[in-house]
Structure prediction request, 475 residues.
Amino acid sequence: MITQREFKKKYLKALLDNNAALFAGAGLSVESGMVNWKELLKEIAEDIGLDIKKETDLVAVAQYHKNERISRATINQEIIEHFTENIKLNNKHLLLSRLPIKWYWTTNYDQLIEDALKNANKKIDVKITQENLATNKPRTDVIVYKMHGDVNHPSSAVVTKDDYESYNLKRQLFTTTLQGDLISKTFLFIGFSFEDPNLEYILSRIRILLGENTREHFAFFKRVSRKDYDKLKDFKYAQVKQELRIKDLKRYSIFSVLVDSYDEIDEILADIEKLYYLNKIFISGSAENYGDWDDKDAIELMHKLSGQLIKDEFKIVSGFGLGVGSIIINGVLSEIYKSKFGNSVEYLELKPFPQISSGGIKLPELWEAYRQEMISKCGIVIFLFGNKKGEDDKIIEANGVYREFEIAKEKELIIIAIGSTGFVARKIFDDIKKDIRKYPYLKKYLKVLQNSQNVKEIIEAIVQIIDSETKEYLK
Prediction:
């Protein structure tokens, strides 16, 4: 067993290291209203005189029906009827689809995972047959392996004992690919029953091949609760069985993450999403001029601040604001070419704002959508300066910078405003100071952020603020 805190830290590291994978079982779809195995086979069992409530070997039930009817046509029809219903995605689907998980494995026949990923604007490559494994779609974001088939191919879905026993003849490449992924990637099992005979076989093979060197994986389980049992002895029995299952899973290096309710999983996934984006810092600001600041000092602040953040392994997002964006980019690139092997793609995202309306969308609407999308994928926002030329060439506050503050506040991001740079940054700082209870991480540094024009002092304060909020999970 592993604590939720430990799990968040370890799976977050897998996401940041680009080797996180997911294995989704029926429980993930049941929450959207899909049937579970017992419900799927209820009528099948009744058709051959069995009571599904009394059956535990559901694969055998499907096989018995096929034996009696000399065909699996009825089973195929049940799959079509139950898994083609128009069912909405649940919150877990949406949360998972937003995480940078590149490899999905599932035993589910439905297409909810695919729908969620498309909804998140991700290009997917779905592998249903062995032939699919031989070809790859170019420039895909996610690969979805449907190791037990798909609702659109019910006759080849893995359901009966025959299917399981012949799995390595008909789907050997799925076994091989999954073995490779279990060795090289960190899996999160969600909504999954570990009674699947095929998966158990693969996991045991992995353990035999690797011995004690098996990679860590994680699985969600609902903690056995007293309120779910009428009799105390039944509750205690269930507790013992769960503890034994948890210990048994350790043989495969699968560590259980216990929750008191399935809604708690949503909270954990939302936390992981938020923690993942702590690694990205959006620097907001624009400057037609630098006000009270000497130009040389202002440029030094932005250049050295962005370089230091790259040195500390953060990613910088810039909207290319006038008088700010280009200097931020210079600072980032200077550090990248010095210490990051010139890998600018990994450390720098440029998001220049469109300046001409086209396609029937007005610029203000486009800018709003652009800001929402850009800021939603960051965990920290730093504000400095914030002015532009208005009518008659007068210097006015940049309202777009303030809007970015409002969005960051709505999304509960970590906000740092360098008030001493003036203009909108000062306005944001004043708002924060009035409501400092919501920003406890800034309290110790208010004086520096409000008054200092010492470049070294400001950068040290910002680094300490960020470190205090990220070191537990990112360091």
